[in-house]
Amino acid sequence: MNQFNDQESGVFDDALLTTLGRQAIELPSWAFGNAGTRFKVYGTPGTPRTIQEKIADAAQVHRLTGLAPSVALHIPWDLVDDFGKLAAFADDQGVRLGTINSNTFQDDDYKFGSLTHVDPAIRRKAVDHHLRCIEVMDATGSRDLKIWLPDGTNYPGQGDLRGRQDRLAESLRTIYDRLGPDQRLVLEYKIFEPFFYTMDVPDWGTAFAHVTALGERALVCLDTGHHAPSTNIEFIVAQLLRLGKLGSFDFNSRFYADDDLIVGAADPFQLFRILAEVVRGGGLDDGSPVAFMLDQCHNIEDKIPGQIRSVLNVQEMTARALLIDTESLRAAQDAGDVLAANAVYMDAFYTDVRPALGDWRESRGLPRDPMAAYATSGYAELIAAERAGGVQAGWGA
Ligand code: PSV
Ligand code: MN
Ligand code: MN
């Protein structure tokens, strides 16, 4: 049975609505700051000057979409004196503070590595930074510490690859052991950049090996922009879910490398395939360990509508993935009917769910068209006037 009972009028069935109602997509605080390439950073009027203003902007996305109830912080970019107070501020805005991201990529000491550095004093400094991040989590009530490491080498022979892995394992162990019983460590991998010969966590296998050695509350973060071209990302999703080690997604899209473009913009079909495996593997079930996050930078488009578009894209592809007629698909697969199986799959992908999602929003008191609602809300004009002349928070702070 197709779960999309009445495609003409765009009605979802109850099971699908329940799953959609559960979906939450975390926004990164850094998406609201000005970003760019190494050639130029174009500013946007109204860019947040403080973490409070970033949270207020993120709350605007949630108000209009009902999809983004939490905001990820980056330490030290979003450092404040009182994180309890910041959590209360977020609560007043109608959102909460989510994943804490560590940063070991803006300090001269880390030129040759942070958690993998040969010098024990620098390794200790990097470990201490993560322990400080866990203190922040204690104050904010955040569950996840996300570690993306900029460590690696540029030239063959530059470093002892094996020794770097051993030091990484030891550093991660110290960090993991400090976590509270309800906290998790998610380890993000990336094939290249900032280093071009080796990265110390270049792929899901390396991340998996480390988190498996650490324990149950250590999981892998899959950033959709961090693989070689042509990598079958949905296969990795299926495997990590099967192994119980998929902790979170950093969603974005890319044409070339780590482009950090709006999720679903470059390849909507890939996003569908990924979400189909998420659904298949129970990643959207009640109590699933999989956290959905965005990791994007809006270099030329306005940030708030950029984030609105992104969460809507994730929801749209989730709804399409939930429409896969799993019974017919299984029957065709079991019968070896290649074309029928592919047709069932593609039927779901080609279903236009936008009218039904408009209904879903209206039934929850949300605007039918959040992009249009934002454009006429006056918020962009308000922040442009209020924040004129300020210095943005984040990268430069
Ligand atoms: C660097 O590639 C990166 O984009 C990683 O994906 C992190 O998640 C993000 O920065 C924030 O630290
Ligand atoms: Mn990322
Ligand atoms: Mn990245």
From TrEMBL:
<keyword id="KW-0479">Metal-binding</keyword>
<protein>
    <submittedName>
        <fullName>L-rhamnose isomerase</fullName>
        <ecNumber>5.3.1.14</ecNumber>
    </submittedName>
</protein>
<dbReference type="InterPro" id="IPR050337">
    <property type="entry name" value="L-rhamnose_isomerase"/>
</dbReference>
<dbReference type="GO" id="GO:0019324">
    <property type="term" value="P:L-lyxose metabolic process"/>
</dbReference>
<dbReference type="Pfam" id="PF06134">
    <property type="entry name" value="RhaA"/>
</dbReference>
<dbReference type="GO" id="GO:0019301">
    <property type="term" value="P:rhamnose catabolic process"/>
</dbReference>
<dbReference type="InterPro" id="IPR013457">
    <property type="entry name" value="Rhamnose_iso-rel"/>
</dbReference>
<keyword id="KW-0413">Isomerase</keyword>
<keyword id="KW-0684">Rhamnose metabolism</keyword>
<keyword id="KW-0963">Cytoplasm</keyword>
<dbReference type="GO" id="GO:0030145">
    <property type="term" value="F:manganese ion binding"/>
</dbReference>
<dbReference type="InterPro" id="IPR036237">
    <property type="entry name" value="Xyl_isomerase-like_sf"/>
</dbReference>
<dbReference type="GO" id="GO:0008740">
    <property type="term" value="F:L-rhamnose isomerase activity"/>
</dbReference>
<dbReference type="InterPro" id="IPR009308">
    <property type="entry name" value="Rhamnose_isomerase"/>
</dbReference>
<keyword id="KW-0464">Manganese</keyword>
